[in-house]
Amino acid sequence: MDNLYILAAFAVVFSALFTPIVKRIAISINVIDVPKDDRRVHKKPIPLLGGLAIYFSFIFTIILKAGALTSQEKGIIIGATIIVIGGFLDDKFDLKPWQKLLFQLGASIALILYGVMIFRITNPIANSNLYINVKVFSIPLTIIWVVGITNALNLIDGLDGLAAGVAFISCITILIIALLNSRIEASVLTSILAGSILGFLPYNFNPASIFMGDTGAQLLGFLLAAISIEGAVKSAAAFAIAVPILALGIPIYDTLFAVIRRKINGKPIMQADKGHLHHRLLAMGLSQKQVVMIMYFISAVLGTFAVIAMQVNSQRSYFLLLIVMIILIITAWKCGFFKHRE
């Protein structure tokens, strides 16, 4: 446990030192977010690429930790590097969605090649078989999970400190779950990622002096997806689906509601709008800081449910997930989250 604190502390220091350097680099190569439409909340140009500070901090700390890199760690590092390259190109040149997807698929395949995969899932049906071997569906299920979470984190990156803070809370949740289940490798990776985010947050919290950009938002989504495969497991290494879905609840549900909203209103799924949770809360007259703190709180509550879900049997964890989903969907419907807003 002491080692986890030390690794997290190193990651915080590295990230805090790297961020000003990355900021200067972003300005020097003109990778800056200039507000061009009313979807953007900030009013002045802000440098991007803050995700590079998180990436370098994460990689350096992993390399410095005791012991040789495991196969899974190598896969995560390679995948993260692919994601960061794609994110950098997107921040600089504004890639098309299919181009982003190619990098995300490449990163997912890197994980699979190094053994980071969903092999079995917990069985939601009460019978003698506690786990379901997904067999040939292992590869597509892993890819869908990784690509989905990578994009989900990217979609909520709309306010100062929002995506980074939500990712940090998800890290703490997965760390607790990993420790409770003696998933040492996942505990190490999550503590390092949490430290890397924490060192960056002071620069990114309102009023932000730097944005993480797609480089950082996609990186955080990818790393959380990969680490959750390693950490959100019960005995026999079965993936407890309800646990990471709750731990990563904010980005998952916000993305789900966005897809439903656009389908209901006949809009393309990839078309941006102002219907995300943070947009709705801002429209109610709340300040950026108030909205971010509310979403932090919701994320923490969902994280608590995730920890509970890990401690009960599979059927009860799925039931808990179902209840949470029903409550959120009803709340979203009543609050008009499925109505289109330009």
In angstroms, what separates the terminal alpha carbons? 48 Å
- Rg over CA atoms, rounded to whole Å, is 19 Å
Strand fraction band?
under 5%
Shape category = globular
The arrangement of helices and strands along the chain is HEEHHHEEHHHHHHHHH
> Major sheet: size, sense and barrel closure?
2 strands, antiparallel
| Poorly predicted parts | none
What does the average pLDDT come to? 89
Strand order of the largest sheet: 1-2
Which range best describes the helical content: under 10%, 10-25%, 25-40%, 40-55%, 55-70% or over 70%? 55-70%
Describe the structure.
This protein has a domain at 2-236. Helix content is 68%, strand content 3%. It has helices at residues 2-28, 51-64, 71-93, 97-113, 138-155, 162-180, 184-204, 213-231, 242-247, 249-264, 277-283, 288-311, 314-334, and strands spanning 32-33, 46-47, 120-122, 131-133. It has a two-stranded antiparallel sheet. A two-stranded antiparallel sheet has the order 3-4. A hairpin with an 8-residue loop joins strand 3 and strand 4. Helix 3 packs antiparallel against helix 8 (213-231), helix 5 packs across helix 8 (213-231) and helix 6 (162-180) runs parallel beside helix 12. The N and C termini lie far apart (48 Å).
